[in-house]
């Protein structure tokens, strides 16, 4: 049994087959494998939220609008600060002794060179989003009203346009990439190097 199989067996799984159809001697079925802890808790939370939104639609809309407004006003500094902290963490990691560590096994060779790997990550991660929102997002932040810039009335047109561009650069610049980098490194390290499954 290899490392990946041993790690996979440490997790709690439910495995079962659901018969689908019979075509002559050929039988079709779906194999289902799930982690009961993650699946049940997430399903309970999601369905409780859905039922609340359906039964109390007006109250849910008002409450969620108020929650979003409160989070935006009170926690924007936390969002920006954590992005800066993750950026600093990645820079420190890059210049540390761990920068040379492979994300795969020690004996494995990379399947792609750096340029190809970067191109795939860029295209799959933010390429299409940047293509679309590179134009739409500055306009959205420049627009007045509920969904635009909340400080719209405070500045001149030039300052409003500059703020819209600054927000767009924040979302699609280094800080936007940092989230992908941190999560990608964590998943690659645990899955490709330690052999753990891509689930809890």
TrEMBL record:
A GO cellular component annotation in the UniProt record: plasma membrane
Subcellular location(s) per record: Cell membrane
GO molecular function: transmembrane transporter activity
Keyword Transport assigned: yes
Transmembrane segments: 37-57, 77-95, 115-135, 169-190
Its membrane topology: Multi-pass membrane protein
Keywords, comma-separated and alphabetical: Cell membrane, Membrane, Transmembrane, Transmembrane helix, Transport
Predominant subcellular localization, coarse grouping: membrane
The name this protein goes by in its record: Uncharacterized protein
Protein's organism: Pocillopora damicornis (Cauliflower coral)
């Amino acid at each position: 049994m290899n490392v990946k199989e041993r790690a996979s067996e440490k997790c709690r799984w439910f495995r079962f087959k659901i018969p689908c159809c019979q075509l002559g001697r050929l039988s079709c079925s779906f194999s289902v494998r799930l982690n009961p802890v993650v699946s049940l808790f997430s399903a309970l939370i999601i369905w409780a939220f859905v039922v609340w939104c359906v039964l109390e639609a007006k109250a849910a809309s008002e409450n969620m609008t108020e929650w979003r407004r409160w989070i935006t006003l009170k926690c924007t500094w936390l969002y920006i600060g954590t992005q800066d902290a993750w950026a600093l963490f990645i820079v420190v990691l890059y210049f540390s002794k761990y920068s040379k560590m492979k994300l795969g096994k020690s004996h494995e060779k990379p399947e792609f060179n750096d340029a190809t790997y970067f191109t795939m990550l860029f295209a799959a991660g933010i390429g299409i989003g940047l293509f679309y929102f590179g134009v739409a997002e500055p306009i959205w932040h420049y627009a007045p009203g509920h969904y635009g810039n909340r400080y719209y009335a405070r500045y001149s047109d030039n300052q409003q346009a500059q703020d819209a561009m600054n927000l767009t650069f924040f979302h699609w610049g280094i800080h936007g990439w940092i989230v992908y980098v941190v999560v990608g490194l964590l998943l690659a390290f645990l899955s490709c190097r330690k052999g753990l499954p891509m689930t809890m």
